[in-house]
Protein backbone atom coordinates (compact mmCIF):
# COMPACT_ATOMS: atom_id res chain seq x y z
CA UNK A 1 0.00 0.00 0.00
CA UNK A 2 1.39 3.39 -1.00
CA UNK A 3 1.02 6.55 1.04
CA UNK A 4 -1.51 5.11 3.51
CA UNK A 5 -4.34 5.19 0.94
CA UNK A 6 -7.38 2.99 1.51
CA UNK A 7 -10.23 2.36 -0.92
CA UNK A 8 -13.50 1.11 0.64
CA UNK A 9 -16.27 0.10 -1.70
CA UNK A 10 -19.81 -1.20 -1.31
CA UNK A 11 -23.43 -0.06 -1.70
CA UNK A 12 -24.38 -0.34 2.00
CA UNK A 13 -23.45 3.07 3.43
CA UNK A 14 -23.64 1.90 7.05
CA UNK A 15 -21.02 -0.81 6.53
CA UNK A 16 -18.74 1.58 4.63
CA UNK A 17 -18.97 4.06 7.51
CA UNK A 18 -18.27 1.23 9.98
CA UNK A 19 -14.98 0.57 8.18
CA UNK A 20 -14.13 4.26 8.41
CA UNK A 21 -14.89 4.18 12.15
CA UNK A 22 -12.59 1.16 12.56
CA UNK A 23 -9.80 3.04 10.83
CA UNK A 24 -10.15 6.19 12.93
CA UNK A 25 -10.47 4.22 16.18
CA UNK A 26 -7.24 2.33 15.40
CA UNK A 27 -5.19 5.47 16.06
CA UNK A 28 -3.88 5.94 19.59
CA UNK A 29 -3.85 9.22 21.49
CA UNK A 30 -5.99 12.34 21.22
CA UNK A 31 -4.08 14.08 18.44
CA UNK A 32 -6.19 12.80 15.56
CA UNK A 33 -8.12 14.97 13.14
CA UNK A 34 -10.69 13.42 10.80
CA UNK A 35 -11.57 15.56 7.79
CA UNK A 36 -14.23 14.91 5.16
CA UNK A 37 -13.27 16.52 1.85
CA UNK A 38 -15.78 17.70 -0.73
CA UNK A 39 -14.03 17.25 -4.06
CA UNK A 40 -16.84 18.16 -6.45
CA UNK A 41 -15.31 19.76 -9.57
CA UNK A 42 -11.79 19.76 -8.09
CA UNK A 43 -9.01 19.10 -10.58
CA UNK A 44 -5.91 17.06 -9.86
CA UNK A 45 -3.75 19.98 -8.74
CA UNK A 46 -6.42 21.27 -6.35
CA UNK A 47 -6.83 17.79 -4.88
CA UNK A 48 -3.09 17.54 -4.33
CA UNK A 49 -3.09 20.86 -2.47
CA UNK A 50 -5.92 19.71 -0.17
CA UNK A 51 -4.07 16.51 0.65
CA UNK A 52 -0.93 18.38 1.64
CA UNK A 53 -0.47 17.74 5.37
CA UNK A 54 1.54 19.75 7.88
CA UNK A 55 1.04 18.55 11.49
CA UNK A 56 0.49 21.98 13.00
CA UNK A 57 -2.83 21.33 14.73
CA UNK A 58 -2.88 17.52 14.88
CA UNK A 59 -0.18 14.88 14.93
CA UNK A 60 -2.25 12.46 12.87
CA UNK A 61 -4.95 13.00 10.25
CA UNK A 62 -7.50 10.87 8.41
CA UNK A 63 -8.89 12.40 5.22
CA UNK A 64 -12.12 10.88 3.94
CA UNK A 65 -13.36 11.38 0.36
CA UNK A 66 -16.79 9.80 -0.13
CA UNK A 67 -18.10 8.75 -3.55
CA UNK A 68 -16.13 11.31 -5.60
CA UNK A 69 -17.29 12.39 -9.02
CA UNK A 70 -14.30 10.61 -10.57
CA UNK A 71 -16.19 7.32 -10.26
CA UNK A 72 -19.11 8.58 -12.31
CA UNK A 73 -19.26 9.11 -16.05
CA UNK A 74 -16.89 12.00 -16.68
CA UNK A 75 -17.16 13.76 -20.01
CA UNK A 76 -13.46 14.60 -20.19
CA UNK A 77 -11.17 11.54 -19.75
CA UNK A 78 -8.32 13.99 -19.15
CA UNK A 79 -9.86 14.81 -15.76
CA UNK A 80 -9.46 11.20 -14.62
CA UNK A 81 -5.89 11.17 -15.85
CA UNK A 82 -5.17 14.30 -13.77
CA UNK A 83 -6.68 12.71 -10.66
CA UNK A 84 -4.55 9.58 -11.09
CA UNK A 85 -1.43 11.74 -11.52
CA UNK A 86 -2.34 13.71 -8.38
CA UNK A 87 -2.80 10.53 -6.33
CA UNK A 88 0.45 9.14 -7.71
CA UNK A 89 2.28 12.33 -6.74
CA UNK A 90 0.70 12.35 -3.30
CA UNK A 91 1.62 8.69 -2.69
CA UNK A 92 5.28 9.40 -3.43
CA UNK A 93 5.52 12.31 -0.98
CA UNK A 94 2.81 11.63 1.60
CA UNK A 95 3.24 11.95 5.32
CA UNK A 96 3.20 8.67 7.29
CA UNK A 97 0.99 10.51 9.81
CA UNK A 98 -1.87 10.90 7.32
CA UNK A 99 -4.27 8.26 5.99
CA UNK A 100 -6.50 8.95 2.99
CA UNK A 101 -9.74 6.98 2.78
CA UNK A 102 -11.68 7.01 -0.49
CA UNK A 103 -15.08 5.32 -0.78
CA UNK A 104 -17.10 4.21 -3.78
CA UNK A 105 -20.20 2.20 -4.59
CA UNK A 106 -18.51 -0.27 -6.95
CA UNK A 107 -15.08 -1.62 -7.83
CA UNK A 108 -15.24 -0.97 -11.56
CA UNK A 109 -11.56 -1.23 -12.46
CA UNK A 110 -12.19 0.03 -15.99
CA UNK A 111 -12.37 3.45 -14.34
CA UNK A 112 -8.75 4.72 -14.34
CA UNK A 113 -8.90 6.02 -10.76
CA UNK A 114 -10.40 2.80 -9.36
CA UNK A 115 -7.90 0.81 -11.41
CA UNK A 116 -5.05 2.77 -9.83
CA UNK A 117 -6.49 2.32 -6.34
CA UNK A 118 -6.68 -1.45 -6.85
CA UNK A 119 -2.99 -1.49 -7.74
CA UNK A 120 -1.63 0.97 -5.21
CA UNK A 121 -4.07 1.24 -2.28
CA UNK A 122 -5.43 -1.11 0.35
CA UNK A 123 -8.88 -2.20 -0.89
CA UNK A 124 -11.70 -3.11 1.51
CA UNK A 125 -14.85 -4.68 0.08
CA UNK A 126 -18.07 -4.23 2.05
CA UNK A 127 -20.22 -7.18 1.11
CA UNK A 128 -23.96 -6.58 0.87
CA UNK A 129 -25.34 -8.08 4.09
CA UNK A 130 -27.57 -11.13 3.76
CA UNK A 131 -30.69 -11.84 5.84
CA UNK A 132 -28.76 -13.95 8.38
CA UNK A 133 -26.21 -11.18 9.02
CA UNK A 134 -28.93 -8.52 9.24
CA UNK A 135 -31.05 -10.63 11.58
CA UNK A 136 -28.13 -11.05 13.98
CA UNK A 137 -27.22 -7.35 13.74
CA UNK A 138 -30.82 -6.25 14.40
CA UNK A 139 -31.03 -8.43 17.50
CA UNK A 140 -27.68 -7.10 18.77
CA UNK A 141 -28.69 -3.46 18.20
CA UNK A 142 -31.98 -3.94 20.05
CA UNK A 143 -30.10 -5.69 22.88
CA UNK A 144 -27.73 -2.72 23.19
CA UNK A 145 -30.77 -0.61 23.89
CA UNK A 146 -32.14 -3.00 26.49
CA UNK A 147 -34.78 -4.54 24.22
CA UNK A 148 -35.45 -8.01 22.87
CA UNK A 149 -36.91 -8.39 19.42
CA UNK A 150 -38.83 -11.54 18.55
CA UNK A 151 -37.29 -13.88 15.99
CA UNK A 152 -40.17 -13.17 13.60
CA UNK A 153 -39.73 -9.42 14.01
CA UNK A 154 -35.98 -9.54 13.36
CA UNK A 155 -36.49 -11.74 10.28
CA UNK A 156 -39.17 -9.46 8.86
CA UNK A 157 -37.06 -6.33 9.30
CA UNK A 158 -33.99 -8.09 7.87
CA UNK A 159 -35.93 -8.93 4.70
CA UNK A 160 -37.70 -5.57 4.38
CA UNK A 161 -35.27 -4.28 1.74
CA UNK A 162 -34.43 -1.18 3.79
CA UNK A 163 -30.85 0.03 4.14
CA UNK A 164 -29.10 -0.40 7.48
CA UNK A 165 -29.21 3.28 8.42
CA UNK A 166 -32.98 3.23 7.96
CA UNK A 167 -33.21 0.11 10.12
CA UNK A 168 -30.99 1.67 12.78
CA UNK A 169 -33.13 4.82 12.96
CA UNK A 170 -36.26 2.69 13.13
CA UNK A 171 -35.05 0.47 15.95
CA UNK A 172 -33.74 3.47 17.91
CA UNK A 173 -37.15 5.08 17.62
CA UNK A 174 -38.90 1.88 18.63
CA UNK A 175 -36.62 1.38 21.63
CA UNK A 176 -37.55 4.86 22.88
CA UNK A 177 -41.27 4.36 22.26
CA UNK A 178 -41.31 1.03 24.10
CA UNK A 179 -40.12 2.57 27.35
CA UNK A 180 -40.04 -0.10 30.08
CA UNK A 181 -41.59 -2.71 27.80
CA UNK A 182 -38.68 -4.97 26.82
CA UNK A 183 -40.09 -6.99 23.91
CA UNK A 184 -40.51 -5.73 20.33
CA UNK A 185 -42.96 -7.78 18.28
CA UNK A 186 -43.45 -8.50 14.59
CA UNK A 187 -46.71 -6.52 14.54
CA UNK A 188 -45.00 -3.44 16.00
CA UNK A 189 -42.21 -3.58 13.43
CA UNK A 190 -44.71 -3.97 10.59
CA UNK A 191 -46.66 -0.94 11.81
CA UNK A 192 -43.53 1.19 12.17
CA UNK A 193 -42.17 0.19 8.76
CA UNK A 194 -45.46 1.00 7.09
CA UNK A 195 -45.74 4.42 8.76
CA UNK A 196 -42.15 5.27 7.83
CA UNK A 197 -42.67 4.42 4.19
CA UNK A 198 -46.00 6.25 4.22
CA UNK A 199 -44.27 9.48 5.23
CA UNK A 200 -41.89 9.17 2.28
CA UNK A 201 -44.75 8.72 -0.17
CA UNK A 202 -46.97 11.50 1.26
CA UNK A 203 -45.59 14.17 -1.08
CA UNK A 204 -46.49 12.03 -4.05
CA UNK A 205 -50.01 11.16 -2.90
CA UNK A 206 -50.66 14.75 -1.78
CA UNK A 207 -49.67 16.02 -5.23
CA UNK A 208 -52.01 13.40 -6.69
CA UNK A 209 -54.88 14.51 -4.45
CA UNK A 210 -54.24 18.17 -5.32
CA UNK A 211 -54.19 17.21 -9.01
CA UNK A 212 -50.79 18.86 -9.35
CA UNK A 213 -49.44 16.85 -12.25
CA UNK A 214 -46.00 18.49 -12.31
CA UNK A 215 -45.36 17.88 -8.60
CA UNK A 216 -46.81 14.36 -8.82
CA UNK A 217 -44.30 13.41 -11.52
CA UNK A 218 -41.41 15.05 -9.63
CA UNK A 219 -42.34 13.28 -6.39
CA UNK A 220 -42.76 9.97 -8.22
CA UNK A 221 -39.28 10.14 -9.76
CA UNK A 222 -37.79 11.05 -6.36
CA UNK A 223 -39.40 7.96 -4.83
CA UNK A 224 -38.05 5.78 -7.61
CA UNK A 225 -34.55 7.20 -7.15
CA UNK A 226 -34.83 6.36 -3.44
CA UNK A 227 -35.56 2.77 -4.37
CA UNK A 228 -39.35 2.63 -3.88
CA UNK A 229 -40.98 -0.07 -6.00
CA UNK A 230 -43.85 0.74 -8.38
CA UNK A 231 -46.06 -1.81 -6.61
CA UNK A 232 -45.49 -0.13 -3.25
CA UNK A 233 -46.17 3.36 -4.68
CA UNK A 234 -49.40 2.11 -6.23
CA UNK A 235 -50.40 0.40 -2.99
CA UNK A 236 -49.93 3.61 -0.97
CA UNK A 237 -51.78 5.61 -3.62
CA UNK A 238 -54.75 3.24 -3.48
CA UNK A 239 -54.80 3.53 0.33
CA UNK A 240 -54.99 7.32 0.14
CA UNK A 241 -57.75 7.29 -2.46
CA UNK A 242 -59.65 4.67 -0.48
CA UNK A 243 -59.62 7.04 2.50
CA UNK A 244 -60.74 9.90 0.24
CA UNK A 245 -63.59 7.79 -1.21
CA UNK A 246 -64.87 6.88 2.26
CA UNK A 247 -64.79 10.48 3.50
CA UNK A 248 -66.39 11.81 0.33
CA UNK A 249 -69.15 9.19 0.47
CA UNK A 250 -70.15 9.94 4.07
CA UNK A 251 -69.80 13.72 3.65
CA UNK A 252 -72.23 13.63 0.75
CA UNK A 253 -74.58 11.59 2.92
CA UNK A 254 -74.53 14.41 5.48
CA UNK A 255 -72.53 12.64 8.21
CA UNK A 256 -70.63 14.75 10.77
CA UNK A 257 -66.84 14.48 11.29
CA UNK A 258 -67.35 12.45 14.43
CA UNK A 259 -69.74 10.07 12.68
CA UNK A 260 -67.32 9.66 9.78
CA UNK A 261 -64.55 8.85 12.26
CA UNK A 262 -66.74 6.21 13.90
CA UNK A 263 -67.79 4.72 10.55
CA UNK A 264 -64.37 4.64 8.90
CA UNK A 265 -61.89 4.37 11.78
CA UNK A 266 -59.85 7.16 10.20
CA UNK A 267 -58.04 9.73 12.34
CA UNK A 268 -59.54 13.22 12.58
CA UNK A 269 -56.61 14.86 10.79
CA UNK A 270 -56.94 12.37 7.91
CA UNK A 271 -60.67 13.13 7.62
CA UNK A 272 -59.93 16.88 7.55
CA UNK A 273 -57.34 16.46 4.81
CA UNK A 274 -59.53 14.21 2.69
CA UNK A 275 -62.52 16.50 3.13
CA UNK A 276 -60.49 19.32 1.61
CA UNK A 277 -59.17 17.20 -1.26
CA UNK A 278 -62.54 15.59 -2.02
CA UNK A 279 -63.65 18.80 -3.72
CA UNK A 280 -61.13 18.11 -6.47
CA UNK A 281 -62.97 14.98 -7.66
CA UNK A 282 -66.47 13.91 -8.54
CA UNK A 283 -67.84 10.62 -7.21
CA UNK A 284 -67.86 9.25 -10.75
CA UNK A 285 -64.18 10.11 -11.19
CA UNK A 286 -63.20 8.36 -7.96
CA UNK A 287 -65.08 5.25 -9.06
CA UNK A 288 -63.22 5.32 -12.38
CA UNK A 289 -59.87 5.71 -10.59
CA UNK A 290 -60.34 2.39 -8.81
CA UNK A 291 -60.87 0.70 -12.16
CA UNK A 292 -57.60 2.25 -13.34
CA UNK A 293 -55.84 1.20 -10.13
CA UNK A 294 -56.89 -2.41 -10.72
CA UNK A 295 -55.76 -2.27 -14.33
CA UNK A 296 -52.41 -0.77 -13.31
CA UNK A 297 -51.93 -3.40 -10.60
CA UNK A 298 -52.56 -6.24 -13.04
CA UNK A 299 -50.29 -4.62 -15.62
CA UNK A 300 -47.44 -4.15 -13.12
CA UNK A 301 -47.63 -7.77 -12.00
CA UNK A 302 -47.60 -9.11 -15.54
CA UNK A 303 -45.28 -6.69 -17.35
CA UNK A 304 -41.53 -6.50 -17.76
CA UNK A 305 -39.61 -4.28 -15.33
CA UNK A 306 -38.74 -1.89 -18.17
CA UNK A 307 -42.45 -1.07 -18.61
CA UNK A 308 -43.28 -0.39 -14.96
CA UNK A 309 -42.56 3.33 -15.05
CA UNK A 310 -44.59 3.75 -18.25
CA UNK A 311 -47.62 2.18 -16.54
CA UNK A 312 -47.27 4.52 -13.55
CA UNK A 313 -46.65 7.58 -15.73
CA UNK A 314 -49.89 6.89 -17.62
CA UNK A 315 -51.76 6.57 -14.33
CA UNK A 316 -50.34 9.87 -13.06
CA UNK A 317 -51.27 11.60 -16.32
CA UNK A 318 -54.83 10.31 -16.12
CA UNK A 319 -55.59 11.03 -12.47
CA UNK A 320 -53.57 14.19 -11.80
CA UNK A 321 -54.84 15.95 -14.94
CA UNK A 322 -57.08 18.85 -13.93
CA UNK A 323 -60.61 18.80 -15.27
Automatic annotation (TrEMBL):
InterPro entries, per database record: DNA_pol3_clamp-load_cplx_C (IPR008921), DNA_pol3_delta-like_C (IPR048466), DNA_pol3_delta_N (IPR010372), DNA_polIII_delta (IPR005790), P-loop_NTPase (IPR027417)
Alphabetical list of Gene3D superfamilies matching this protein: 1.10.8.60, 1.20.272.10, P-loop containing nucleotide triphosphate hydrolases
Reactions it catalyzes: DNA(n) + a 2'-deoxyribonucleoside 5'-triphosphate = DNA(n+1) + diphosphate
Gene Ontology BP terms: DNA-templated DNA replication
MF-aspect GO terms: DNA binding; DNA-directed DNA polymerase activity
Gene Ontology cellular component annotations, sorted alphabetically: DNA polymerase III complex
Enzyme class: transferase
Stretches assigned to the DNA polymerase III delta N-terminal domain: 8-127
DNA polymerase III delta subunit-like C-terminal domain segment(s): 199-318
EC assignment: 2.7.7.7
Keywords: DNA replication, DNA-directed DNA polymerase, Nucleotidyltransferase, Transferase
Family classification: Belongs to the DNA polymerase HolA subunit family.
Protein name: DNA polymerase III subunit delta
Amino acid sequence: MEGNIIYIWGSEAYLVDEEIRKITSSFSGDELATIYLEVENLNGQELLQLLDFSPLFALQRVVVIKNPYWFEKVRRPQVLKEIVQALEEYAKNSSPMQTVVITGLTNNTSNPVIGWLNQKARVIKCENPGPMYLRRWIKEEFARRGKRVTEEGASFLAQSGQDMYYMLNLLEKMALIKGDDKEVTLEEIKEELESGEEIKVFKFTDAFLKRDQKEAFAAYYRLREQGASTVFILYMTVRQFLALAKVKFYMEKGYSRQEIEEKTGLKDFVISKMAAYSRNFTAAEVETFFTWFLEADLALKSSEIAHEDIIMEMLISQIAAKK
